[in-house]
Amino acid sequence: MKIKIIQSALVLSIAAASSATVSAQEVTLRLVSAFAENGIYVQHLLPWINKVNAEGKGVLQINFIGGPKAIPTFEVGNAVKTGVVDMALNTGAFYTNVMPESDFLKLTQIPVAEQRKNGAFDAINKVWNEKGNMQYLARTVENQPFHIYTNKKVDKADLSGQKIRITPVYRDFFQSLNANVITTPPGEVYTALERGVVDGYGWPIGGIFDLNWHEKTKFRIDPGFYDAEVSLVMNLPAYKKLTEAQRNYLQKQLLALEAENTFWVKYGTDETARQAKAGIQTIAFDAAGSKAFKEKAYDIAWASALKQSPEIAAKFKPLFAK
Ligand code: 173
Q1: CATH top-level class of 146-225+278-317
Q2: Neighbours of 287 (CB within 10 A)
Q3: pLDDT tens digit string along 210-234?
Q4: Which atom of ligand 1 is nearest to the CA of 203?
Q5: What is the atom index within ligand 1 of the atom nearest the CA of 189?
Q6: From the alpha carbon of 229, which atom of ligand 1 is closest?
Q7: Do 140 and 266 form a contact (C-beta atoms < 8 A)?
Q8: Which residues have C-beta atoms less than 6 Å from ligand 1?
Q9: What is the pLDDT confidence band of residue 23, given thresholds at 50, 70 and 90?
Q10: CA distances from 186 to 134, 190, 211, 308 (A)
């Protein structure tokens, strides 16, 4: 009996040792999302994770841990910085507590493919490495402008008397439109609308149905402004620890993921139609008003960026502009 136990313990330890040897070149990366699991950003990413895992046996695997229930939205940035998780689907607005520059990525006006060519991507990574202890891996969402959604009708670009839910994306712009602003993660928007804590919210053109906000939304203000940035980021030491083969494999899959960003233009069009069908009315300004509205959005955000982080904002600005 005793011998048997020793024997089986030995077998187990050999099995463990050999599996460790066999898998020495396979790494499993833990990924969390700052966005809800049932939302479009995660839903769009899941098939990619499956593909990475199917094609990456013996090289690299991604273990999707979950959304904000696993790690609260505004804590995901620090979780990546400190290595609590290896990777995250996140947006800069959610980790300005790591570095204020994270929110600047909403100001890119060129495709990520071009950012990789003109030096923007490298410039971003220099900052993300140094200030965030992070590697900026890939932008998974493009061509999704932000909008103001509200239940109080307006006939000009003025949110006086309105309480609007924000993140850092919208703060300076909405305050310049005289809104009273309240910061919440996406997970608290529905309740805030339901209880009348807010009259409206900022969000991109797509995704308001994912958490049922359409039930509590009367108007969308056009035009949109900025471009919603949703990206994969990785803990820098974890990234540096990858073998060359693992890093090359990951890079190949990240570029394939970005190549699928063509999805977003049609998604935006479809979501616009779906909002109209759901009874959400559009408030649109005339051509001159629209142009002024958009210009104001960018002017205010860049002015704020240049004030917050003069050198980095000045470096990013020409690389991000059209
Ligand atoms: O929560 C937000 O409104 C926000 O900042 C954001 C950023 C990128 C995509 C979607 C929402």
Answers
A1: alpha beta
A2: 9
A3: 999 999 999 999 999 999 999 999 9
A4: 3
A5: 1
A6: 8
A7: no
A8: 91, 93, 167, 169, 186, 202-204, 228, 230
A9: low
A10: 23, 8, 9, 25
Residue 16 CA to ligand 1 centre (angstroms): 44
Closest residue by CA, ligand 1 atom 11: 203
Tell me if the pTM is above 0.90. yes
Containing 66, the helix (H) or strand (E) segment is strand 60-66
Distance CA 192, CA 184 (A): 9
CA of 249 to the centre of ligand 1 (A): 29
**What are the tens digits of pLDDT across the range 157-168?**
999 999 999 999
- Residue 275: phi, psi to the nearest 5? -65, -45
Exposure string over 217-229, b if 16+ CB within 10 A, otherwise e:
bbbbbbebbbbbb
Mutate to test the pocket of ligand 1, among 203, 230, 231 (most ligand atoms within 8 A of CB): 203
Ligand 1 centroid distance, CA of 91 (Å):
7
Domain locations in the chain as residue ranges: 26-144+228-265, 146-225+278-317
Tokens describing residue 285? 């300004």
Residue tagged 């071009």 (tokens): 114
Are 26-144+228-265 and 146-225+278-317 the same fold in CATH? yes
24 — pLDDT class (breaks 50, 70, 90): low
Fold (topology level) of 26-144+228-265: D-Maltodextrin-Binding Protein; domain 2 (3.40.190)
Percent of the chain with pLDDT over 70: 93
Whole-number Å distance between alpha carbons of 291 and 297: 10
Between strands 219-225 and 146-150, the pairing is antiparallel
94 CA distance to ligand 1 middle (Å): 8
- The Cα 283–Cα 148 span in angstroms is 10
Assess contact for 150 and 218: CB atoms under 8 A: yes
